[in-house]
Design brief:
Number of helices of chain A: 2
Largest sheet of chain B: none
Largest interface: A-B, 68 and 49 residues
Strand order of the largest sheet of chain A: 1-28-27-26
Number of strands of chain A: 28
Helix content of chain B: 40-55%
CATH class of chain A: Mainly Beta
CATH superfamily of chain B: Transducin (heterotrimeric G protein), gamma chain
Number of domains of chain B: 1
Number of domains of chain A: 1
Structural class of chain B: mainly alpha
Order of helices and strands of chain A: HHEEEEEEEEEEEEEEEEEEEEEEEEEEEE
Structural class of chain A: mainly beta
CATH topology of chain B: G Protein Gi Gamma 2
CATH superfamily of chain A: YVTN repeat-like/Quinoprotein amine dehydrogenase
CATH architecture of chain A: 7 Propeller
Shape of chain B: elongated
Number of helices of chain B: 2
Oligomer: heterodimer
Order of helices and strands of chain B: HH
Largest sheet of chain A: 4 strands, antiparallel
Helix content of chain A: under 10%
């Protein structure tokens, strides 16, 4: 009997060694192309002027921590979700609440607006992602039309519609991401590869094809092919959980924000990290990141209640914004780039411009 | 008991094999130099910076969040 086990252990050790060797080779290949730093190349770029960005609107109404928000394509509506189980749709111009839904669970960690503007998706500790069609009739009970789409075996951390209202991509505490058909609730593709909870995801801008990036508690950011379910690239340079990932507008790179208090930029064609956005004075984790329209600015929402604005090319901080009275938990730039919205554990959302 | 040990090892082995296959696939990728990647990122910024309302502000009357007038809805 003992002789049967020894070969298995040998194979495992052999595979682990092969794995380590391949990792070193990968690092070597990546290093060969590391001929210069982004901020060096960017020295010749004109510096950015002074920024005057302030809170232009404050959205009050949630009874507890705001956990997630998303913009509607109409550039004025916003959906937000909270620890108290409420999902609210706001008109950001007027600050009026247009719809409110109470979810059957607390900690609604994910919400997303459908591309048509006619529905919202949300989920959290219920391990599901549900879609609510938005009715023009304010008296209609939205909860009655709810459709359960995704089922995970742990909490839902993020969700996003793809190019249409018909498909949703989800990430979960169960370590997987999944693509679902909204109408039938069918699982179309699942994405396995993270070794721990997946906390965030972002779809590539439509021109660049069918890929998305995810970040997790295993400190890895993985890029996936949506059709095959294959992980095509993986980046592991953060020192702690990755809370947020966002594609650069051209689709050639993506930024990440982590509990290690840094944001980083990874270029997909160079296959490596090309910038780190950090300061010795910044010691709290980043919960959420997003780019301005041109990709020149990176906004980061931090656990120390602030928003740091970074010059993506030069690697320097251009501004720090104060206002929230607790952690910033979510941050998104509006579809036309005229403003960005933050949600916080202080129960409010703020629009900055 | 010995069977379950063998099963755990088999599971670890299949995981390790998958990791090796994944790494082999990633190793084959065509990569470009950082200088080229950086130049492309800069070119994109340069091409779009003038349309970026948070960098080159549009007149307050065109940015609904910056203008001072308040909207009222007719009930």
């Amino acid at each position: 009997m003992a002789t049967q086990e020894v070969p298995l252990n040998e194979t495992l050790a052999h595979l682990k060694t092969e794995s380590e060797t391949l990792k070193s080779k990968l690092e070597e290949e990546r290093a060969k192309l590391h001929d210069v730093e982004l901020h060096q190349v960017a020295e010749k770029v004109e510096g950015l002027g002074q920024f005057v960005m302030k809170t232009r609107r404050t959205l009050k109404g949630h009874g507890n921590k705001v956990l997630c928000m998303d913009w509607c394509k109409d550039k004025r509506r916003i959906v937000s979700s909270s620890q108290d189980g409420k999902v609210i749709v706001w008109d950001a111009f007027t600050t009026n609440k247009e719809h409110a839904v109470t979810m059957p669970c607390t900690w609604v960690m994910a919400c997303a607006y459908a591309p048509s503007g006619c529905a919202v998706a949300c989920g959290g500790l219920d391990n599901k992602c549900s879609v609510y069609p938005l009715s023009l009739d304010k008296n209609e009970n939205l909860a009655a039309k709810k459709k359960s789409v995704a089922m995970h075996t742990n909490y839902l951390s993020a969700c996003s519609f793809t190019n249409s209202d018909m498909q949703i991509l989800t990430s979960s505490g169960d370590g997987t991401c999944a693509l679902w058909d909204v109408e039938s609730g069918q699982l179309l593709q699942s994405f396995h590869g993270h070794a721990a909870d997946v906390l965030c995801l972002d779809l590539a801008p439509s021109e660049t094809g069918n890929t998305f990036v995810s970040g997790g508690c295993d400190k890895k950011a993985n890029v996936w092919d949506m059709r095959s379910g294959q992980c095509i690239q993986s980046f592991e340079t953060h020192e702690s959980d990755i809370n947020s990932v966002r594609y650069y507008p051209s689709g050639d790179a993506f930024a990440s924000g982590s509990d290690d208090a840094t944001c980083r930029l990874y270029d997909l064609r160079a296959d490596r990290e090309v910038a780190i956005y950090s300061k010795d004075s910044i010691i709290f984790g980043v919960s959420s990141v997003d780019f301005s329209l041109s990709g020149r600015l990176l906004f980061g929402g931090y656990n120390d209640y602030t928003i740091n604005v970074w010059d993506v090319l030069k690697g320097t901080r251009v501004s720090i914004l104060f206002g929230h009275e607790n952690r910033v938990s979510t941050l998104r730039v509006s579809p036309d780039g005229t403003a960005f919205c933050t949600g916080s554990w202080d129960h409010t959302l703020r629009i900055w411009a | 008991m010995k069977d379950s040990i063998a099963n755990n090892s088999t599971a670890s082995i299949s995981q390790a094999r998958k990791a090796v296959e994944q790494l082999k696939m990633e190793a084959c990728m065509d990569r470009i130099k950082v200088s080229k990647a950086a130049a492309d990122l800069m070119a994109y910024c340069e091409a779009h910076i003038r349309e970026d309302p948070l960098i080159v502000p549009v007149p307050a009357s065109e940015n609904p969040f910056r203008e001072k007038k308040f909207f009222c809805t007719i009930l």
